[in-house]
Specification:
By secondary structure, this protein is an all-alpha fold. It is built from 8 helices and no strands. It has helices spanning 2-9, 27-46, 56-65, 70-98, 106-128, 133-148, 153-159, 167-198. The protein is globular.
Length: 206
């Protein structure tokens, strides 16, 4: 799978017409590149962020005022997350409009839907981390939306065991946002590219 992943990123053959710049040019590749930017900036921010209800907001202020380039780094991380979601949505719309979800690429489509869900989850869990008033309101709204879905109440209770913004909830959101969700995105991305490589009937030149 890893070799197929690398081959998809660096193909041996590329058709000349595939290099033409179009509105939907390389949306999936651009989304993955944006994810790498998110991951890199997130790692750098994690060196200075303190996942504690009493210190999280102060650490954000410190990043923006005391760390050289900190404000730029945080803004790049936040902007990249918006661009990432936008590219994924456009990519999904392109696949749906062109019917590229049909066999033999139905598994590729399902993996892409999983990536979309993980991206939304990553954006939601990251919303709480600054621990300002907007973060608390937005996370509370997302929690109520989860409760409105036909999901077991135990899922919401696991994510928010002691109230939005409290110590255990913040710790779980931080772990999900910085480790579990990015790792899952990387794994599903590898599987997604692997399935694209295996579906050569649709893309014989890859």
């Amino acid at each position: 799978m890893f070799n197929e992943f690398l081959t998809h990123l660096f193909p041996r053959t590329v058709r000349r017409e595939d290099l033409r710049l179009t509105v939907t040019f390389c949306l999936g590749g651009l989304a993955f590149t944006t994810f790498l930017v998110i991951a890199l900036t997130g790692v750098l921010l994690a060196f200075h962020y303190v996942p504690s209800p009493g210190m999280a907001y102060g650490s954000i202020l410190s990043i923006e005022s005391d760390i050289p380039g900190g404000r730029y780094l945080r803004s790049l991380h936040r902007l990249s997350s918006h661009v990432f979601l936008g590219l994924l949505i456009l990519h999904a719309l392109r696949v749906a409009v062109r019917g590229a979800y049909r066999p033999p690429r139905e598994m590729t489509w399902l993996l892409g839907c999983g990536l979309m869900g993980l991206a939304l989850s990553g954006a939601w869990t990251g919303t709480l981390l600054p621990m300002d008033q907007l973060a608390l309101w937005a996370t509370q709204t997302g929690t109520e939306l989860l409760r409105s879905l036909p999901l077991p109440e135990s899922i919401v209770s696991f994510l928010v065991p002691d109230g939005v913004g409290q110590a255990r909830s913040l710790a779980r959101f931080h772990l999900l946002h910085t480790l579990l969700i990015p790792a899952a995105i990387l794994i599903l991305s590898g599987l997604h590219f692997y399935r694209i490589r295996k579906s050569r009937g649709v893309l014989p030149w890859l």
